[in-house]
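Please study the protein below:
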Amino acid sequence: MPISPAAKSAAIWGYGREGRAALAHLAKARPDLALTILDDAPVQDAPAGAAVLIGPDGLEALKDGRFDLVVKSPGISLYRPEIAEARERGTHFTSVTNLWFDLHPQARTIVVTGTKGKSTTSRLIHHLLQKAGMDARLLGNVGVAALGEEPGRDWTVLELSSYQLADFDHAPTLAVVTNLYPEHAPWHGGVEPYYRDKLRVLSDESRTRAVLNAQDRELRARCGSRANTQWCNAPETFHARKSGLYFAETAIEIVASPLRGLHNLANLAAACTAAELAGVQGLRTRVDLSGFEQLHHRLEEFAANGRTCVDDSISTVPQATLAALAAYADRKIVLIVGGSDRGQDYAELVEALGHDPVHALILLPVTGARMAEAMRSRVWPFEILHAGKLAEAVDLAMARVPQDGVVMLSPAAPSFEEFRNFEERGRAFKQLCAAAR
């Protein structure tokens, strides 16, 4: 919904990358607005003319309804009580993503989301469009705030998280959903609201063509009857097999692929489906991935002190760790797991440990303790150890990895027990492996 001409005041809640983009946009588009920055920490670089309210002062102003418009950072939960109180007083909340769509209603857009695989899939789609000679932009959760950026002349690919979709009120041209697993329940107020917020991107069946993963149980259950939908990873479509990528029964040649694991082939199947709908031809026989680079912290393989290590810090749910184990099924794995507890179900991962090539298991707080409790009733064919910090876990792992094995950090949990985010955790893992003896 465009900004009301009657709005007189606006607040930017959260002054990070997106907050700065929002402030710059509002200052240019609506110089008549009285602008205020709300943040938890002091703001050192606030532009002249913008007021600043820190911590409780900002929250009180919100609850009092002092602002006609609030542009909220994605990291701030839409379900906070201050938002409900402000809405009752007439405050309208929006986001950088909604503002970008307001500005570019004619842009042809491909929104990519999903619990896991959305970053790889969005980058693959962008790559395939560019390989086909199209002018395409890649924006959103990939690190480029959309607001302030122009759309591609042909297509704009936007990777959007559940935080960005919770108040999304537009209809993209194409919407790709890779999968749905329990995640981010505290932010959304439960798993069911998380699923609902993710699927807001599919709300307009008439205007949005959906690309959905037929292998995902939740998507089949929730979207099986949706009109205007193209399924992927089904036998008659683009789909992944252990032997490669197929369209129906035709094996597809993949040129220069850096991707590893069946899950990444499934992501590629989704990307090919979306790219074909966007007009790319020839993908049913040949896919050129030359120049495509794998994501940092997602099955990122490196050597340290003569040992092979795998940084899979981005795996914050058990299903992602299962995919990582499958990708290295031919190696002996010393696996490091554990992190912040968001109530995930570890039963499937625990069961898989009895069949996957685990050589040793090292458990970190706090979810590691949950896994240890779930494993008590069985005898396991590998050593199980506990570590208080990642540094201790790396030392234990490096001392136990066989010559032909790998040390893998694939935590199956968020990082907030010891680190601010999965990127910081992944960087620390690399440094600790390099320093180990």
